Amino acid sequence: MPFRYKINNILYYCRFFATKSKKSPKTARNEKFKSFDELFNYSNSQKTLQSEKVSKENSFDALYQECMTEIYKMRAEADGYSDETRESPEIQELTKKENEIVNSVFKRVFCSNLNNLKDMNNRLNCYKSSDIDPYWDPFKNIQNLKLQIASEFNQLSKLVSSVELYKYKSMIKKSMSHFNESNNFDIIKDTQKDSEDDIDYKYKNERFWDPDIDKRLILQNHKRPFSFRDLHVLHNFVSEDGQILPRRLNLTTRKQQIQIFKSIKIARQMSLFPYDWKPLYRDRIPLLNPLQYLFDELFYKYKKSNDLRSKAMINVMINKYPDVNAHRYLKYESQKMKRATSKDSEDKDCKVV
């Protein structure tokens, strides 16, 4: 019991002196500044963040860039590539000269405003110790940055496009020179020949127009009049800027030219054909009537395999849908009837003989 009592007394005294010696941080701060004026003067004497200029690099993320460069340098030194990351002596000399020029300019401009020239020199040369640039303010508002970036991007894109054009032109010139050397190709003579053949159509009479095979197939249009559905054909009668070509270039008759003009007009009103340019390859798809497509498929099946079921469906469609074009089917049936009658007449003649 007495031993336990002594230990308790010792712990009590230790706690008492420990609590007595401690001071709260609030009381210590209040003892340092007894009045509000002292606290205010102390805060004014401290340097504000805006007065200290940060970083050598004049950019908004300069602190981050400095930290990253230091990390890269430390990593390169650890990996054994420190010689590659160090600045060359030529660059160091240029930076020294640049700093000297800037310091001289600042001394000449601000020497009348500053009382002590030594303080100014310390401010200007503070980058030596702490990598702080005295000319950059991190709180400065950056105005018209988006416009500046957009203009610079446009200039760079123009430069890149001009360089690419120059490359393509040089490649074309090289290929043409190589082709001329190998095949003895004369540009002036051959181009004159082609141009003369093209010009002949403009001054020839309609009776002497002689289009090639592809042009003839386009103008025939499967022996049907041109309509707004024939988008796979109408693009041949339009220039690159969307203008309808004249009749002497299309080699069409007056009736065909009127049909082409009306069909292009209707297709443009229905937003199927562009106004200001020639339709692209993906836009040259004809608009098919589903009934006409079904009729053509049934006729093809009947003609190929003599399917009577498809023939019955064709007869029903002709009676029910008079708008369906049944010209090929009727022509085929008439030719078939002529063959049958001719065979019957030949058989009768043979029997008579």
Report on this model:
- By secondary structure, the chain is mainly α.
- It has 5 domains: 2-45, no CATH class; 62-130, no CATH class; 145-185; 195-283, 30s Ribosomal Protein S18; 290-352, no CATH class.
- 67% of the residues lie in helices and 0% in strands.
- It contains 17 helices and no strands.
- The protein has helices spanning 2-21, 25-32, 36-45, 62-79, 82-85, 89-110, 117-124, 127-130, 145-183, 187-203, 213-220, 231-234, 247-250, 254-269, 290-305, 308-320, 327-352.
- The longest helix is centred in the middle third of the chain and has 39 residues, at 145-183.
- It is elongated.
- Mean pLDDT is 73; it is low at 1-8, 10-30, 47-54, 127-132 and 193-197.
Corresponding CATH architecture of the largest domain:
Irregular
SSE sequence, one letter per element: HHHHHHHHHHHHHHHHH
Number of separate structural domains: 5
Q: In percent, how much strand structure appears in the residues?
A: under 5%
> What is the CATH topology assignment of the largest domain?
30s Ribosomal Protein S18
Provide keyphrases for this structure.
353 residues, mainly alpha, disordered N terminus, elongated, 0% strand, small ribosomal subunit rRNA binding, ribonucleoprotein, 5 domains
